[in-house]
Amino acid sequence: MESTTFDWTCKNTWQQSAKNTAWCLLGCSIGDFGTILFFQLTKIPFPVLGIMILAIINGLVTSIILETIILMKQKMSLNESFKTAMSMSFISMISMEVTMNLTDYVFTGGAILNWWIIPIMLAVGFVTPWPYNYWRLKKFGINCH
Asked: The domain containing residue 30 runs over which residues?
């Protein structure tokens, strides 16, 4: 039986997957942080878990919207752009969202944004899906940008 090893050393793939992960992080962060900030500023009484679930959902939605816009700027039709954005790796996006919110929960008790937690959440949100995005790009050539 032939054994093949996966190449984790391709600098170009790491760079491209970092770019893809950063775009995803931007899209997810807009909805996620926006939701948390909304509840933090309005002081609407809502359970922390509920806020975090809404933040995850909104992060996924804003990521798909941003991705659709980026793809349309690359001359794809709206329909094709949306389908491509929807077919992006939800594993990557969900892992990003869940780890960002878990980080917030562990350090602040959840659903709290302040000057020091945001960079930590962004770093964890970036690092978590990045190897998966590299693997997916290298193995399948799946690139959403």
From this structure: 20-140
Q: Is residue 15 situated within a structural domain?
A: no
In a domain, 6, yes or no: no
Number of domains into which the chain is organized? 1
Helix axes 90-108, 117-127, angle to 10 degrees: 150
- Summarised one tens digit per residue, pLDDT across range 40-62 is 999 999 999 999 999 999 999 99
Q: How confident is the model at residue 89 (pLDDT cuts 50, 70, 90)?
A: confident
Is residue 119 a part of any domain in this protein? yes
